[in-house]
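User: Predict the structure for this protein chain, please.
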Amino acid sequence: MNVLKTIAATAAVGATGFGAHAITLLDDFSGDLSNYTTTVMLDVNDGASNVFAFEISGGALQVTTSVYDDIEQVAFILNGASLAVGEELQADIDRNDGADSIGLYVGGQAPVTGVRENYLSVQARNTTAAVLVSGRNGAVNTGTVGFDSSDAGYDTLFVLRDGTNDYELGYYASGTRVVIADRDGMVGNDASFIGFYADIREAGTIGVMDNLVIVPEPGSLALLGLGGLAMLRRRRA
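Assistant: Here is the predicted structure, written as structure tokens:
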């Protein structure tokens, strides 16, 4: 089972006056995925479906599609987890080749099969080496924006909730924080449902992602040069 646990950042930040800060590790994928819920929000074919599964491999999260039918967009929600104002959701990412995308999901309602409403995602698309931001404000498409980061070496995706219904989305590259999009006034999105997002466009494996964390006041931690919090994370071998 997944256990929510808090990492006291004493060793990294306590001595520098930020001892009150703590990072919540939601999942390091050393257990199983029984506390997640999978919902197909978009099935382009609306008939036959892909055969896919979120799975843990080598202590990290990936999505494997064994039978491909058509494009599907999927929410993979960590049950009971949410994001408060001032907190940032982060996860490490190591992309591989392919046309699919994988990333983070933040939404204001439990995902419903066949419905795309009140959510935001930041995702890495493998073929273009781009980080993309997409979502819905209610049922209205907020548009997809992206940054060609093939040379940026991004290693972490993030979603910051910087207001009641306001968000920043982007990535870290070796500690440098890059904001791709501000999404303010997302009136139906209070970040009460968070987890992962996948855009499946072919058979194969998407991934990998690791170390899903919530960071309080990430700007303060960034001043310490922690960037993507590599000092506090279990890294893959």
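The longest helix spans residues 218-222.
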